[in-house]
Records
---
Amino acid sequence: MGFKLGLCFNNGIKYIFRFIWCTVCGVVFWRTYVHYRDGPQYIYLHEILGSWLCIARGSAAVININCAIILLPMCQCLLRLLYYCARKVNINTRRYTINTKVFHIFLGYIILLAAAVHITAHVFNAINFCEKYHSKYTNVNPFSKEKTTIFNIVFATIPGITGILMVFILLILFLTSLQFVRQRVFNVFWYSHRLFILLYVVMMIHGYKGPLRKQLNIEYHRPGCIQTTDNITDSQNSTITGMVNNVTYIEPSVTSWNTTCIEAPKFGHIECQTWLWLCVPVLLYCCDILYRLVRRSTSLHISTAKSICKDIVEISLNVDNLQLTAGQYVFINCSTISLLEWHPFSVVQVPTKTNGHILKLWIKSAGDWTEQFTKKVMPQDSILFNEENLPVSYPEVKVDGPYCSSMEHISQYKVAVCIAGGVGITPFISHLIYLEENNVNTEIQYIYLHCIVRDKTLLDNITSIVQHCSYKLGHSMRIKYDIYYTGDEKFYKHTTDVESFHTGRPSFNKIFKDIRQHQRKNTIGVFVCGPTSMCDTVRRECHINTGFHTKFVFHKETF
Ligand SMILES: NC(=O)C1=CN([C@@H]2O[C@H](COP(=O)(O)OP(=O)(O)OC[C@H]3O[C@@H](n4cnc5c(N)ncnc54)[C@H](OP(=O)(O)O)[C@@H]3O)[C@@H](O)[C@H]2O)C=CC1
């Protein structure tokens, strides 16, 4: 019961929203399906292709609408605006304005599913176009040569070739965005995802003057109309005579229109409307990107760099114009390493008047870019060195931000449980330092901080910051911290003997049970930042321990 209640409480709105979106897609599909099934202008085409025509068009509409909407969750500036507009809404609802990446992924899956249906439908359409070729359907079936094969339709027509190209692009987008690819080779994911631009261009070409044709002259030739011996004009405006004995078109069996044919049916391409769906979101996305490009164009100087532990370096930047909130993150670019690469980092210290507008970031060497960056700001082989050995000049960096994060919400709860793994401590430190430096009034009364660290030097650094802040903030809130050391135990025992220190990983089950006992009838914000497996365990505990009175609201941040 607890797990299901917690799941509903934490994800209820997300699931409701997904359900609504699936319903919208279903309605779009069905309306398009019915339009092509019952529309008099498609009767001749429907005679050849059957329901596959309606399925292909319905799935195309679903692809269009999803391709349009999928860009919006990626408009960071627009989202920030939305987030600030939603300030008055309850916090459990507002966090969805930040977790839009999840909705972006969800839309991606819908596009894949709709694309699979669309491809299948068009394969059958191609078969039908080949098999149901009839000398009398000369205009509605464009593959007028009797020897047309599926191979010809797929590989020798614009819709066929663009369709294959789109399948390849979609596969690349899908495979490179799988979590294990993103985590191991982020650049592969990042660059390959730019292929969406090509996908959109190809999508617009795909339906242009395709083989699907609708009837243009319904008023003069109702399908199923009675042909007379009078002269009627064919689609090329030539005269056809002797219609009774020399039927040019097989009339579909539509009995409701008991009219006489005035003309032969004329057929024309079904207009491609993809651009109509895409133009507004693409425009919004371009504006968002442009704004970000302008915002990120200024180069900044690193004022200091120091080592936090063997693979984490702290850089300080003097930023006058950047307004940040504790818990947010920024993207960093270093042109001497790569002009194109931007990497996200949570801020450790937000620039304020009190600290002289100094922005601090911790950069952990965990990939090509971060390793090169660490070497540039700390050129020695051993990164552990004191401030006198600092390099004379640091590389210039550009900062893009701020970006909203669910870690911002900590000070909006009365009780917050903060769980950090390794460098994931950064957003929590930024809150503690901000609260300590600025003496601001917040909702928060209790902070339970659990920090799990493998590196002894990192542990020492975190401990001194946390001890200092908790001492300074002691008068306004209660901060209970526990630090878990998972590295070499012998080393640990010799150097620390404080009761808040533990060896080995924590038991989250016990932690949550204890908090639940002490914080009855409260809504508790749980914030996790660290390895994915740890976040998953904490999420599960949130669900299990949520009851009717005590609720755990889960928030996480990982890059
Ligand atoms: N500024 C930045 O760069 C930021 C990075 N992050 C995120 O933080 C993440 C972790 O950073 P990193 O320092 O590399 O972390 P580490 O891999 O070094 O792990 C940190 C600690 O977490 C423990 N741990 C791992 N899995 C579990 C688990 N399932 N349950 C309990 N404890 C666990 C580890 O224990 P053990 O030794 O036993 O494995 C270790 O003590 C990154 O993936 C990144 O996304 C977040 C915010 C900011």
---
Amino acid sequence: MAAAKPALACANPAATAEQRAPRAPTARCHPQALRRTAPPGAAHQQPRRRPPPRRRHMALATRAGAAASPDVAADISALNQQFGIPGRVEVVAGLGGLPTVVLKHACGASAEVALYGGCITSWKQASGDEVLYMRPDSLKALAGPEPKAKPISGGIPHCFPQARLLFCFLSCTQRLSVHRLLVLCFLLCCGGRATVCVCVCSGHAAAANTGDAPFEFTAALHSYIEVADVGEARVRGLQGLEYLDKTADPANPVRKREEREEVTFEGPVDSVYLKARDYVELDVGTGAGGTVTTNRWDDVVVWAPWTAMPEFYRSLESAQFSSPVRLKPGEHWRSQAEWAVKDL
Ligand SMILES: O=P(O)(O)OC[C@H]1O[C@@H](O)[C@H](O)[C@@H](O)[C@@H]1O
């Protein structure tokens, strides 16, 4: 699994010494990304050995408000009888004190999911390196009083009508027997009904119309990926696609065709690539990067704000934007996105 490799650092043995060495800090680099840059040689180290995991699992139908109660621990323990996944799950007070589910795989990779919006707020590689970016302004907003007025911006928010402002329910568990990944399902009820499944390196989104009228929506997995060097970051896999350029005026996007093999960032970018391929990669500027493989998401959004603040992240999203999903009563929709960190 890609998660076993050092995050966002070049681990390609064939790379030159210059390519393998961490890049010198530049004024345009985000400090967090720099701290994560692997030291020379680290790319070849084996992930730290960890003690055998305790087998603990997650609660069925756990209410967000009860997430930290002793009952939850009991539920988790009971579920351990049912599933034999190599890892453990904990419910903690996460960002802004929000109830957050932590999934830890035996290989060392982990993910954190805030029940507020079902937002994935952290995804760490086996090496401990964080892949996702959390916006500092978002963290400040989360520290405010309830009810939350703003969604979490950062990590991987689930864009679905109203979903980012709702607390979700931890709904069920399942085991992927082939990959033996930890999987959690979060249930968001809003208009229709959406289920978001998260495992350590992939996500499923599903929606069902449980009402008695047709239901239409757009949706996205709005993944924020932190980059080490914005000047070196590039996205591949978009050449030849039509896209809506929303940079100048989001309400009146300009339709264009992408001629570049690699999309680079010299200023703000806000583009919706239409009918995109199911594989895109973001080279973060270290010779490695994040890849997204999708199933049944039509579009890809590349969004890079260019603010006065030194926020160097890129949002590479799987989206259903150009053709809204229309569900009749009783119908359902399902899609999948899988993220990985690879040498590119
Ligand atoms: O809601 P957030 O996380 O602040 O992100 C907003 C941005 O999300 C992007 O998906 C859109 O393309 C941008 O137009 C928009 O500004």
